[in-house]
Specification:
Layout: E1 2-4, E2 14-18, E3 25-28, H1 38-51, E4 53-56, H2 63-71, E5 91-96, E6 121-128, E7 136-140, H3 141-146, H4 150-156, E8 160-164, H5 165-169, E9 185-189, E10 191-193, E11 200-202, E12 209-212, H6 217-231, E13 237-240, E14 246-251, E15 255-259, E16 268-275
Parallel strand pairs: 3-4
Antiparallel strand pairs: 1-2, 2-3, 4-14, 5-16, 6-14, 6-16, 7-13, 7-15, 8-9, 8-12, 10-11
Bound molecules: succinic acid (SIN).
Succinic acid (SIN) binds near residues 94 and 105.
Amino acid sequence: MSSVSSPAAPAVDLQVAPLTPAIGAEVSGVDLTQPLDDATLAALRAAWLRHLVLFFRDQDLTFEQHKALGRRFGELHIHPAAPKDAEHPEILVVHGDDKVEFVAGSLWHSDVSCDVEPPMASMLRIVQVPSSGGDTLFASMYAAYEGLSDRMQRLLAGLTGVHEGEQYYRGRYGAGDLRDGAYPSAEHPVVRTHPETGRQSLYVNEGFTTRIKELPLAESDALLAFLFKHCARPDFHCRFQWRPHSVAFWDNRCAQHLAIWDYYPETRHGYRVTIRGDAPFYQPG
Ligand code: SIN
């Protein structure tokens, strides 16, 4: 466990305990219901950039506190399927019980990568957990990129992934229920340069990426199948076990996640605030 101090200390005594070398750290010593001072914010952001996803325990946030916390990191994103009459359109409800036919995020994805400017980050608070299960897996896409051979890295550099909302949302939301009345779709570099760390990461995911634009379909299918399997390697992962009022804050630019739906017929319930991002780019290293 390391203690993070920032130049403008004393803010709070943040403790950051990594879950795995690749990804994930549990943070203690901060009360997220309270406004964050600049020094604490800077220390959290540094830990987040280093570990890709931060976990916090016992953070009983109101919707307003949750949104205010998200806004400390950027402008809030509204999900394409946010109900038009929602009181808090910036809050996405995440729910599973014995009646639903799907739960959000139960396959590997980076949130809303089908947007032209996909969300930078997501901040999920789970308030009700099943008696066991309902964990979330997170995967480092830096580690996935770095785990490829030089030759494969060179092949992928400059290729374009097509990300389609329809593949993920069809059967869950009708196009007419979505923000723009149509399924979002976007093209992004397969290798993405992180705008803050400068590191390269793999930016394809089985939730949204349907093909690689420059390749014939058979080659695109085979390459994506390989990359999805590669991203699922356990040494790129951490696994988080939720308790009521745990919060996870992840960087969608370099991490994917998968919510495990193994708790049927029990209930799991939570709320996600999502923070807007920029158009992905690739800058050769
Ligand atoms: C999501 O994809 O945001 C849902 C993750 C989860 O429920 O653990």
